[in-house]
Amino acid sequence: MVRFSVRRTAQVVSSIARKLPQEALRLASIPCMSQASSSWEICNRSRWKVPRAVTSLLEGKCRCNSFSTVPLEEVVVVVGEKEERIDLTQYPPHLVRNFSIIAHVDHGKSTLADRLLELTGTIRKGLGQPQFLDKLQVERERGITVKAQTATMFYNYGSGGIGSSPGRFLLNLIDTPGHVDFSYEVSRSLAACQGVLLLVDAAQGVQAQTVANFFLAFEADLAIIPVINKIDQLNADPEGVKTQLKTMFDIDPQKVLLTSAKTGQGLEHVLPAVIERIPHPKGVVNAPLRMLLLDSYYDEYKGVICHVAIVDGVLKRGEKIESAVTRQRYDVMDIGILYPELTPTGILLTGQVGYVVSGMRSTHEARIGDTLYQASMVVEPLPGFKPAKHMVFAGVYPADGSDYDALCHAIERLTCNDASVSVTKESSGALGIGFRCGFLGLLHMDVFHQRLEQEHGAQVITTTPTVPYIFEYADGSKLNVQNPAALTSNSGKRILTCWEPTVMATIITPSEYVGSLMTLCSERRGQQIEYSFVDGQRAMLKYRLPLCEVVIDFYNELKSITSGYASFDYEEAEYQSSDLVKLDVLLNGQAVDALATIVHRSKAHRIGRELCDKLKNVLDRQMFEVAIQAAIGSKVVARETIPAMRKNVLAKCYGGDVSRKRKLLEKQKEGKKRMKRVGSVDIPQEAFHSLLKTSKV
Fold first, then answer.
1. Per the annotation, does 177 bind a ligand?
2. CA distance linking residue 37 with residue 604, whole number of Å
3. Is 252 annotated as a binding residue?
4. Are 230 and 203 in contact (CB under 8 A)?
5. Has the keyword Repressor been applied to this entry (predicted)?
6. Which residues pair with 632 in a beta bridge?
7. pLDDT tens-digit readout, 438-487
């Protein structure tokens, strides 16, 4: 048996042990701590032998006893004077609880997850970064959760003791995003849970995304535990929030938990409530294996790492599994839990959530929502997930055409971790070969762009976002348009009806801003559906709005009008007929397909003027005159002109007849005309960034 103390976590140690001897030098270089509060033992239960040179090196650097083997099956965690063996066979389904935290954005989900991890000893208090489960750089920069993250905890409940006693429970926690654009992440997380913590800010009260997430959990028939957070704030009103929960969701105020994740107040009641109120998984232990593929990401060394939930049966390392979608078979090379990092256990049982490394090398093999089962067995596939409904489409092109292959590789890796993005190849006359990507919203698109740059070093140009339209022609044919350039202005076929997607928007706002918000929704062609009061100070508005009026800057204007106090959420509604036209942008008479857009006829002139004005400010002057036009078919609705850079040909004429001056000017004019016929205008990347910010497109 080998004992050593390091600054790293058990997951790092176990992963290094699995890579010996290649990583032995890295382990040996880790400095030891003589008074370390945590130490890790690795039991010699494996068959793999460590070379004598590596043994002596470890003995010298890490003050270890001599050893000849390194375990791969079991990790013994020593915390203080107590030993904790991770043996998942001691946790049958009735000792397992799977739950998620759902809330409006910035109501304290990630902070509460930190406190629960500390309370159960999963992470040490004061070590590591705040919002431990927010691992992406974009999450830490923006202060929001983008990806749902899973962590396994062990909790002694009631009079239970240590180890496999009846009072010890395995808890799987999933921290979810709060922004409406990432509701697909929330719905996927709920598929692996039997209950949720509905978190509400004690000062802000029930918000729009709180309502949306509640009904997601309610429709999934999950147990809901209401938790009021941030009760330590001076402006906290927990009793008022209890009244809101009772009015809107019919939640008994006596069942509401009061906590402060920042100070730790009331947290001792959260996990007992999870165990008491949330049912255990209903799977069958002795049934054939069925597991649900929840998420995946790509690792350069291990390939695709899949996060799975075991619905029925047992999965062990070394077994063969098969995909219900692709019918491909894989060997289970590594399996374990997220505690909170990858921790090998060699087995996963019914109701447990963990990870599987099966040698998948292509991201196309990991289909989110797929059912994985033992090879050669016949099982009924699980329902899976609803397909993501893409609300916004945009073109993604490499800033340098030679970087296309690198961009293709980066998008393939990133879509493995973000299954809600759709990707198809397309080409543009102005931008070359690229991709048409579908997103759940504008923030989702912005985050995807930022992750491409930060995680993969890709420099990309993103075109103006559009929404999917349907055009119905007189001959009975229909055309689904995701890229405005695909709609021909003069196709020879008469358009009967244009259909645009709509959303059902929910706005919760202080009462004094109701009038201004009604005006904003009316300007965006909204139709009022409901107007009610949440309490004495706040009102709830429901509007049916065209999606194209929402995706660009509606949220920013709403926050500006209400000084940030209003919250906004929307859900998909049906298509509605509308008077839509294609607005082309012409440079010297040549259409730029990347700048084409589809707008409502009543706004075409204003939007055309804005586009021309912005282009005039970002395009460089040429040696010839550049005409910027916005046109509907053959009708020009707006124009701006960039004057040519010209030499003063009259500088040498100090006098003389006017005909001499006129002759020089005419000669210069003819030269400019020849340049205009053969010249081309380069559109810089800043032009597309500027157009992306065009208001009310």
1. yes
2. 68
3. no
4. yes
5. no
6. 635
7. 888 777 888 888 888 888 888 888 877 888 899 988 888 888 888 888 88
Does the annotation flag 110 for ligand binding?
A: yes
Q: Is 179 flagged in the annotation as binding?
A: yes
> Is 109 assigned to a binding site?
yes
> Do the Cβ atoms of 72 and 48 come closer than 8 Å?
yes
66 annotated to a ligand binding site: no
107 assigned to a ligand binding site: yes
CA pair distance 593, 50, nearest whole angstrom: 63
Residue 396: strand pairing partners: 435, 462
Contact indicator for 360, 173 with CB cutoff of 8 Å = no
The burial class, CB within 10 Å (0-12 / 13-18 / 19+), for 563 is: exposed
Mention every residue, 6+ apart, whose C-beta is less than 8 A from residue 21: 50, 51, 54
Confirm whether residue 104 is marked as ligand binding. Answer: yes
| Residue 390 among known ligand-binding residues | no
- Which range, 123-132, 463-472, 539-548, 641-650, has the best average confidence (pLDDT)? 539-548
| pLDDT tens digits along 518-536 | 999 999 999 999 898 887 7
Residue tagged 């010298």 (tokens)? 60
Q: Regarding beta strands 38-42 and 2-4, do their DSSP bridges make them parallel or antiparallel, or are they unpaired?
A: antiparallel
108 marked as binding residue: yes
Asked if 543 contacts 518 with a C-beta cutoff of 8 angstroms, the reply is: no
Q: How far apart are CA 473 and CA 496, in angstroms?
A: 5
Q: Is 175 annotated as a binding residue?
A: yes
Pick the closest to residue 504 from 211, 250, 147, 247 (CA basis): 211
Task: Extract the tokens encoding 535.
Answer: 């309490």
Q: Which amino acid is at 573?
A: A
* Distance between CA atoms of residues 100 and 216, nearest Å: 12
pTM, to two decimals: 0.68
Q: Supply the Cα-derived Rg of the chain in whole angstroms.
A: 30
Taking every pair of C-alpha atoms in the chain, what is the biggest distance, in angstroms?
111
Q: Is 232 a known ligand-binding residue?
A: yes
- Residue 503 is assigned to a ligand binding site: no
Question: 341 is written with which tokens?
Answer: 């990092």
